[in-house]
Amino acid sequence: MTFLWAFLVGGGICVIGQLLLDVAKLTPAHVMSSFVVAGAVLDAFDLYDNLIEFAGAGATVPITSFGHSLLHGAMEEADKHGVIGVAVGMFGLTSAGIASAILFGFIMAVIFKPKG
Amino acid sequence: MSGLNSKDYKKTSKSYQPKTNYVWNCIKAFVVGGIICVIGELLSEMYIHWFDFSEENAGNPTVATLIFLAALATGLGVYDKLGQFAGAGSAVPVTGFANSITSAAMEHKSEGLVLGVATNLFKLAGSVIVFGVVAAYVLGIIRFTWQAIF
């Protein structure tokens, strides 16, 4: 059942992105930046966790979850260390994503030649 | 040519622009984006059942695996073909983030490892990180203050 909801919710988020591209004529960079901010805002109101519980990877795979994880990591540390924790925990949950993006991006760029 | 004012020009030029098929684009984005999320769900189930991750922290290896697959597909030139077909369906999932990093790095490979690959790695993806961190920082401070007061 989670698979169906992952498909529907993940696909739905992509449709919103497509509409922003086609109708609002935004660039992909603008859409992705807006989605990250939207994910952080949804997490600020504790809404994004409900979406993850409901749709699983349908909510964690779209880029909105990056904003959610940034704020979530920041708040976890803020509970322990106060305001300084916001900076300390900022990349706490997203480290795996950023580290692997840098590593694999670099390796692939070294191995492969651009086509066309 | 004297009769061509700016209003006419807009009208004429519009008829030469390719028409956007909103519905078909949305269907493509929906299906491809949905499939990528289902692959993510499969990976996360795999990490939970076979590698003893909990449901909360299975997201980390899942995202890392998806990023690896997307970077590889970008290197092979497959992901950009998918991107032309799916639009936001391949850009919005975290795989699109990996694609933008890898393609920017590959594009500038001829300028060398330091000035080309490493300098341009975050050329496209940088905006996502900047806006994410700034938004999370501001919201984090607001939420912390809110919790401290109430």
UniProtKB/TrEMBL annotation, chain A:
Keyword field contains Membrane: yes
Q: Which residues cross the membrane?
A: 83-112
Endpoints of the signal sequence: none
Q: Which UniProt keywords apply?
A: Membrane, Transmembrane, Transmembrane helix
- The protein in question is named Stage V sporulation protein AE
| Source species | Halobacillus campisalis
Q: Which gene encodes it?
A: spoVAE
One Pfam match, given by its short name, reads SpoVAC_SpoVAEB
User: Could you tell me which InterPro entries the record lists for this protein?
Assistant: Spore_V_AE (IPR014204), SpoVA (IPR005562)
From TrEMBL, chain B:
Q: Does the keyword RNA-binding apply?
A: no
Determine if Membrane is one of this entry's keywords: yes
Which InterPro entries does the UniProt record give?
Spore_V_AC, SpoVA
A single Pfam family it belongs to is SpoVAC_SpoVAEB
Print the keywords alphabetically.
Answer: Membrane, Transmembrane, Transmembrane helix
Q: What sections of the protein cross the membrane?
A: 21-43, 63-79, 125-146
Name the chain's protein.
Stage V sporulation protein AC
**Corresponding gene?**
spoVAC
